[in-house]
Structures are given as structure tokens and as C-alpha cells.
Design brief:
Chains A, B, C, D: GO terms for molecular function: chorismate synthase activity; FMN binding. The structure is a homotetramer of 286-residue chains. With 286 residues, chain A is of the alpha+beta class. Chain A has 9 helices and 12 strands. Chain A has a single domain, classed as Chorismate synthase AroC (Chorismate synthase, AroC fold), CATH 3.60.150.10. Chain A has a 5-stranded antiparallel beta sheet. Chains B and C meet through helix 6, strand 5, helix 7, strand 6 and strand 11 of B and helix 6, strand 5, helix 7, strand 6 and strand 11 of C. Strand 11 of chain A pairs antiparallel with strand 1 of chain C, so a sheet runs across the interface.
Chain lengths: 286, 286, 286, 286
């Protein structure tokens, strides 16, 4: 397409819409991960951070990782992407055990969202937890999804589970505990969102198995090709990315709603209007 | 729902989302028409204005109404909502002829959009003209939709039809003519959008007609009840409202895209960030 | 993907879903046009047929083409795809006039649907005419859409416009006239659907034009490359295809609704259950 | 609306579409539960059955309920809707403990789908497990969702987790185990679907709690009104209904696809064409 604006061709309107012509170039300069980082470095400072919290029998205990402070550096300090060094070693050992056996193991990934705006999504038809659940359940090998207190929350009573409100030193309404996982009634409340995902072991194993063909003949199969001993660390950026995609959509919707048609800004807390320009940059995960 | 924020109830998040609790009250204070007017009075100043351009055989000639200046006052100065006083009288006379006969007549409504942002909608799957077409074709009694040069444009050649670009005194890229109707390649270009809609005469007539029942029996029917001699003036706010609904959605999407993730603001012209608060007010169509 | 069904891989479920693995092969064997023809040759016998009804000033008069009998053979008997031989010659002559000038002309395409099932689509939010309108308005170069009596219907009175019902010799409820264009209240009534589409002349012309660049510099452009003197005959299969896509979706929805959950088959007329297998075949437009 | 078909009114097309006029009457005669039962009694015989599998600390062990044979009668034989009489008593006792305390407890519901057709939903964008996850996560008080081997499956290795295929005595391809939960690669494989849902305890408790008002004042609240000691049995029909809604949509889509446009019926197993008429009946849950 020409950088000339030819009469009655859409050269001009494409520029007005996208500010760029070459989709190819755009994708090269703006990988999804960059979107994620830019998202994080916006004035809102929303961060989407995932880490490996389980490899087979090695389960990171609840509370060992501080969600207020856990950083990308801590997570990326080891090959299994677990922010706790001691448990990271145990996980690496667990993978080593099965590495040569061709018998893969599964595990779990925890994903948190810090500094998300309040008011994202809606109370009945498209709850934020339902959208996040669908997004995450769309990744391969997932068998379960929980957020906030999750399955463990079923062992609490109402008194133990309720998150009491208070007004913090900045005059913002907060909850003292966060069993709601940052979402109440389908809408974000500004607390840290946390969710946990179960990955089954992958299906390609190094062992003869009985299979059936399309023609219903039974035969034996010994799979060749790559075997992943544990996909957890590789699933992690997928979880981060799909959670960020859900949130970016809602961030844009929220910005449109609250900045163009605000009703009660004292309650709604519109996003800061000083979001930085989304510039291509050399930010890549190590 | 309480104005107290009960623990682990969504009282707080509803406020964070909507800034208001009583949906009923909200609807009373914010009629769709008010949305339309507020939309117009935003700093962007987008205006959606419709007028009756045809009643049966009385057709307002193209160009008689100046789309740069036509105002709500002109349109509302007579009962048929036609901004040209001479044609308004002819239209009223045409309706008078059929008023007592119980033989309704149809006509046409023209709708324009002034000061819409550039860059609304997309080039392939959900073109702005396609969305507007679907929206307008969803109103009752519509048999046709055209925008820009419309059906009449088929009688022009390419040389006659092309809209040449120029740079205006404010440094903005404009077109000298506007046969594109403010939309090129599915995306708004900032020129005035104009579209025209055909209304059939309504089906309820004061005359015996042969009908069939559900049981396939033929019988005669003489309809009773209200007869509209001409629905054009009453269709007009429906056309305005549905066009505004399409545009408000796109305005919010554009605001989210260009203000949160701008790529090239020189080309994209992000909306002004000083949109006024959307306050309930006593603005009603006379 | 293997024709073996490997344990816990989705080989088997893909076959259960699609009955085929190679998407590439599928697309080669099943061009959209074939879908269209298969659609026509089903036991329902729904046919989607488009023809050129206008080239610039040459306008096929209403009623000259008999929609009950017009055939693909008649349409394909000449290069402009107009079923009336006399008007086809006039259209070819009109194109010849501009062919060497590099000044393209537009026109109109009429599309009819014969033997569509009754009951397609819904009365309020996704009317059949609204869906067809959006689909057709998504094609390039379209400036207008009308169906049934269309813009011309605005010159009729209610008495002239109404379609009276009767019961035909097969006991089916029909209308004597068809100004509704086969759709009433958003839902198909089994009569022939007819719609007409306006194409503007294409924008690429062989003449120097003033243009503006992205940097807002004014300059002259003389376009090189292909010039279409008239795109009408080439738009025709696009109109047919997009109308068929809308209808195939609704045909499947209708089949699911009326055959799985019938309420009153006497009124609803479920589709025949003896639809033929959708086999790849060598049917191609000449 | 008249049972007469008035000219150019949509009386006739509404009947052709719906076979019924009175939406009110329709809803009365066809409660959602009836849809569910009719769904079950179709020739396909798809059954959606949910039961309470956890009340607070009382957790029904995996495998205690036989999903091949568990029946509605077994589930409805006690007030907590648990098909195992011994565990039902324990659950009732657990609820009795908290009934008068005003300190509610949560738990879990298991839902299975028997005899669903093969081939429902799609491999990438709208996987069946993702749709079911979103649907179920839209119910109130849900904190987690798992299907097939679920979170427990993360403790297995690939060899332990894989479901081997075989051809059964009817020549149908089956899996010997069902850790996939009836869904592989986003598509149903005809085995029993099973999913489990975590319900948090409800938030209304009989105890003074610190709350915050909209004006950010801290105060004490003692909730009055109804207190549910345990919502599990009442959530159960909601889980059944929303799972059935997802499946009915896909059943209709599958019927449209495979019966109208079959590609390879040997692999796809089109639904039987002899689905019974969906008649209102007096089937109600006891």
C-alpha cells in the first residue's frame, strides 16, 4: 500500500486507524510479551506474573511466595521458573528423575495480577473469573482452574472465608484478607488476583502402547520424536499471555467507559490519563 | 443492595464498576436521547442528526439541506421533522391526503454524523458501513439502506466519483468531495457520514383484506385500532438512536485503543482527553 | 497427524468432529462455490442466484427477469452475467465505451434465493434482512442495499404494498404478491428472497489526480497497474457466496431447532431429513 | 397477536419460526428442567446428572459413585442429593452442626454427562472444556472447576494418565480408562464427561462484622434475613442446567453440521434422525 493517500482508496483511513501499515513489521516489533511488559509499565502498573507452583509431587506450600513482592527476577533465577530457590531445586530434581524415562510429569502454575484497575467486567453474564477460566482452560493440557481460595476454600466456614473491608491510609477501600482472589461478584476489586492451573502430564511417552487406527484396527505404537519431561515452565508464558489478553480487553473497555462516560468518579476511580505511548522497545524475557 | 459494603458481597465492586446502584433510576435519568445529546456535547462534539427527506412522492432534492450547518432547531421547527420549510409543507399536505383514508404512506429518513473521530471500525470483517447497515436494517419497516453516494453513485464514473484529498488550513487531511460518505475501506475518515433509509408504508390499513388463519382457512379481515398515516417522523429518533449506539461503541473502542496503546498519534489523532463528565441533565427533545 | 489414534491425543476426536484431517485438501476439494451448488442440490433445493442488473446507465427494468424461472444457464450465457440477452448487449457496449479510457463504471447486482426454508432468523435482534444487509455491505465498493420492494416501495401506499395470503393447491400458506421480499418481521416466509446491491465505480483511474502523502505533502499521482472498467460481473460470485454463507448458517440452526426440538411441525415445516451427503464433485462455474 | 395471518404482518412467520405465539405460556410449559429431561429422553439419550460430592470436610471418595449407573433416584433419595447413603448422612450431620450457628459451609458438586454425541465443539478457540468452564464459573459462589483427572491428575505420570483406545463389541472406538473426562483436544469423544466444582461458603453470616460504607466510614454490621447453612444441594440444579445449556447448543450445531453436510459419516457418527418431538409433559424433579 502506498504512503500516498490515493483518492477514494483506504490508504488514509488505515493510517488513521492503525498508525502503521506493515502488519508484518508490527508483529515483529510488538511480540505479545512486549504487550505484556508495556501493560506492566503503564502508569496503572498492572503486572501479570506467573510462576511454577507444582511439579508432580513437589507442591509449593500456600503462602511461601509473597504475592505482594514476588518479582520476575526471582522467578527467572532458575530453569523451572519457581521463585522459591529451595523448591526450585526439588522440582528440578523431580524432572531429572523422569527425564530419561520418557514418562512425563505434570504440575501446576500460579498466576497473579497486581495493580489491576477496580471495576473490570460484569456481574452476571461475563464475570471476570468466568472469562479468565475460559481463557486458561483453552490452553493445552489443562485439567483444572481455581482462583482466590479455590478448592481449599471449601474447607472453610463463612466466618473464616469472608474478606472484611477497611479504608487504608490513602483513603482507598481495601479488604484485609483476599480469599476472593481480587474478584467479587464477577468484578475486580483492586486486590491481587490469584489463580492456579492444573497441567496433566503430556501424552507422548516412550513406551509401547496399544492403539486403534481410523479403520478400527488395534496395533502397537512406540512414539518417536520429542518428549517433554515436564511442560510446566513452557506453559508459564502461555498462562501469562492469555491472562494479559483478557485483562487488556477489559482495561480498554474500562477506559472507554469511565473516561468517556463517567458516572461517579469518586467510586469508580478512572484510570490515570497519563498512560505512556506504547513504543516498540528491546524488552525481552531473558 | 446496601450502601454498606458487606464483607465478600459485591456491593463494593458494583459501585467500582458502575458508580450507581439503582438501574431503574439510571434509566430514568439517562434516557437514550440524553446519551445522544451528551455524545454531541462532548469535547469531540460528535453529532447524530436525522431528518425526514421523503414522504411518499415528496422527495427532498439532494443538496437542498446543507449538512455542514443543518441544526436540530431547523428539523424540529415543523411536525414532519424536515429542515426545509417548503418541503415540510408539501409533506404535511401529502399526509393530510391519506390521513382519513386509512391507507398509509412510507418515505425516507436521512441521517448524518458530524465530527465523528477518524479511524472508527475496521477494514474487513466489521466495516463501519456494514455495522450501520445492520443496525438500521434492524428497525421495523425498513426496506433499504444507502450511504455516501448510494444508489445514485452507480450512475457516475470513477473520475466523477473519486474524492480528492487535500490538507486544510489546520493541517488536517480532508477530502474535497464526500461521495465516500465519511467512510473509506470500512473506517471513518472524519468527513460527515450520511446515510439514507427507505421506509415502506405500514401494513395496517382500513380496508377489508383476504387473510388466512393458522388453520389455513381463508377469511376477511377489517383491521381496527390505530392507523399511522405515515411513520416517518416517528422512525426518526429510532434511526438517530441506533446510529448513535453503533458509534458510541466504536468511540469507546477507539478511545481505549488510541489512548492506552497509541502507535502513531500524528496519524491517529487520539480523542481529546477532556471529555466532560456524563451528567444527567434536563435536555429533552421538544 | 497420524491415522493411528494415539492414546490421549486428539487424533480420534478430530475425526469424530470433521471426518477429515487435511484442511488443505478439504479446501481444494470444497471450494465455496461447490458449497453453494451443493446447497442448491440438497433435497430442500435452496438456490442462491445473482445476476447483473445494472451497468452504469443501463438499468434492467423491474420484472423483465422472471425470478421463478431464471437459470444459471441464462445468466452465464454472456460475459456480463445478465440473463436478458438484449440488455446484456447494451451493458457490454457500455463497458466497451469506457474500457480504454481508464474511467471505470459501477452498477448493480440483483440476488435471489429460491426455496429457502420458512422460519429462518429472528424477529428483533438479528433479523434476516439485517444479517443479509451486513454481509453484503461487507463486500468492497458497495454503497447501498435494498430487498423486496426496496427504495421503490416508498412510493406505494399500504394498500398497494401489502402481500395478501392464500392457501395454495398443496395446502401451503403463500402470499399472492411478494413486496416483502421473502422476509416478514425478520423471518423468512418461504417466498423468493430478492435483494439489490449498488456498486460504485472503482477508484483506480487512468488520470493524473492530486493526492496527499502521509506527511501531508500534496503531489500528483498517475496510477499504473490493472484497471477494471466495470467490476459488476466479478462482484457477482462474491454476492452469491456471502448470501449463501448467511443462509447456510441459518439452515443449520433451523435444522437443529426444528428437527431436535420441534414444537409444532404443522406450522414449522421441518426440513426434509433426506439431505444428500455433501460429496466433493466436479461442479464448477463455466 | 392474532391467529389470523394479517397481510404483511409477521403473524405467519412467527408461527413458521416458533410454532407457538405465547412466550409466557411456552416458559410455563417448558421449564429449563423439562428441557433437561427431554434432552435425556431423546433417542440419543444424553443425560446430565449432578450430585453433591462434598459438604465442608465430608468429601465423597473418588470412585465410590459408579458413573456408569448412578441414577436420579439415588441422588434424590436424600435431602443433600448425594447418591451414597452413608456419606449423605455424614453430610446432613455436618450441616446440622452449623445450621443454628449462622456460619455457613461450602463444598463441591460433581456433574457427569452420559451418552453425549462424539465430535462436540472445536480444537482451538472454543474447546468444550473451556465453554463448560466458563459456564460453570458464571454461577455464584464458585471458586474452582476441574474435569476428567483434574487437579489430582497432576500427581500422575504420562504412562499412568494416558487413556488407551480399543474397539468395543459394537465396533465403536472407546477408551479403556477415562482420565480425559470425555473430552480430548477440546472435542467430546463419547465417553462420560465428568467435572467437579468448588463452592465457597456463602457470605451472609450471623456475626457482627466490621464493614465500610460507600462514604468510606467504618461501622459494624449484623446481617439479618435468611442464612443458608450450605448451598450445595441448591446449586446442584444450576450446575445441571448450565451444563445442559452448553450441550444443547452444541448438540444442535452438531446435528446441523453432520446431518446437512456430512463428510465421513463412518467417522462422524451423525445423530439418530429419530429424535422425538419435544412435547410439554409433566416431568418434574421431586
Amino acid at each position: 500500500m502506498s504512503i500516498a493517500y490515493r483518492p477514494s482508496h483506504p490508504d488514509a483511513t488505515y493510517d488513521m486507524k492503525y498508525g502503521i501499515r506493515s502488519v508484518q513489521k508490527q508483529l515483529e516489533e510488538w511480540p505479545l510479551e512486549l504487550l505484556l511488559r508495556k501493560f506492566s509499565s503503564s502508569s496503572q502498573g498492572t503486572e501479570v506474573i506467573a510462576y511454577v507452583s507444582q511439579v508432580h509431587q513437589v507442591v509449593l506450600p500456600d503462602g511461601l511466595v509473597d504475592h505482594d513482592t514476588v518479582s520476575l527476577d526471582q522467578i527467572e533465577s532458575n530453569i523451572v521458573m519457581c521463585p522459591d530457590p529451595e523448591y526450585a531445586e526439588k522440582m528440578i530434581a523431580a524432572i531429572d528423575v523422569v527425564r530419561t524415562r520418557g514418562d512425563p510429569i505434570g504440575g501446576g502454575v500460579t498466576c497473579i495480577v497486581r495493580n489491576a484497575p477496580r471495576g473490570l467486567r460484569s456481574p452476571v453474564f461475563d464475570k471476570l473469573e468466568a472469562d479468565l477460566g475460559k481463557a486458561v482452560m483453552s490452553l493445552p493440557a489443562i485439567k483444572g482452574f481455581e482462583f482466590g481460595s479455590g478448592f481449599a476454600g471449601t474447607f472453610l466456614t463463612g466466618r473464616e472465608h469472608n474478606d472484611e473491608f477497611y479504608t487504608d491510609e490513602h483513603g482507598r477501600i481495601r479488604t484485609r484478607t483476599n480469599r476472593s482472589g481480587g474478584i467479587q461478584g464477577g468484578i475486580s476489586n483492586g486486590e491481587i488476583m490469584n489463580m492456579r492451573v492444573a497441567f496433566k502430564p503430556t501424552a507422548t511417552i516412550s513406551k509401547k502402547q496399544l492403539i486403534v487406527t481410523r479403520e478400527k484396527k488395534e496395533m502397537e505404537l512406540l512414539a518417536s520424536g520429542r518428549h517433554d519431561p515436564c511442560v510446566d515452565p513452557r506453559e508459564l508464558p502461555m498462562v501469562e499471555a492469555i491472562v494479559a489478553l483478557v485483562l487488556v480487553d477489559q482495561l480498554m473497555a474500562q477506559h472507554g467507559q469511565c473516561n468517556l462516560f463517567p458516572i461517579n468518579p469518586d467510586l469508580q476511580e478512572p484510570l490515570g490519563s497519563n498512560f505512556p505511548k506504547f513504543e516498540p522497545a528491546n524488552i525481552h524475557r531473558k
